[in-house]
Amino acid sequence: MEIYLPIAEVSVNGPLLLSIGLVVGLLSGMFGVGGGFLITPLLFFIGIPPAVAVATSANQIVASSFSAILAHIRRRTVDFPMGIALMVGGLTGSTVGIYIFNSLRELGQVDLLVNIFYVVVLGVIGALMFIESLNAMRKAKLQGPSPKRKRGGLDWVHAMPLRIRFRSSGLYISVFPPLIVGFFVGVLSAIMGVGGGFVVVPAMIYILGMPTKVVVGTSLFQIIFVSGYTTMMHAYNSHTVDTVLAVLLIVGGVIGAQLGARVGLLLKAEQLRILLALLVLAVCLKLGLDLVLHPAEPFSISVPRHL
Fold it and tell me: For the residues 35-45, what does the mean pLDDT come to?
């Protein structure tokens, strides 16, 4: 069933879009990511213009993240003060990212640079997560359950001023590291159409030292607000949000998020991280190949309708 998207100006398969939303929602519930790192490239692959894909995918991210966080709130695995700190940094970063995105769009280079951003960021994050997860799984097999380590993140996190106690995370750290992490995620959200979960989840674990049990829910909390703000800014500034596309993705995403939250409980933290790393690397590889391989049709000619 073909559906015409008025803003994207293309016709796409409706059930296919619903399936994409379902899969991305499933990942959102499992890993605590908005799923934008996957849904935006998938929209590229089926012919959606990158500018529309980036702006519209944020709608689905908000819906699937909100659906997934309900289960985490019931289990009390959301650190709201930490989420607010990440959100404040994220909203600031999104404002800067929107300005960068619009500047690139005016120069006519947004499509290429968005793809390059994806390849570089996904490649680095995916590789680091994969290596760390393999090491953690190897140590667990050789030594058995590892002794409980003292949480607290990196040393420079403790050295910074204005420390706040985040009780749900068991941390007493400066408010600046969450603000900085949130700012970086906000910039990525605006330029790449992602919630930033694939960046903020490792950052909360390895930089801030948060326990894994509250990382997923807290990540989803900040994603809702940052992605929602990004969507509104894109709609106002660049008019590239396709409502029809967003609704189809949201319907699938909300259903998938509830399933993903349940599946995530069945896997260990190391298994979740290595699966997420493999997924990130797979998307990075596909985008990288698309950039370097010769297209099957290097030119396309469109004939005006009045002819």
Answer: 75
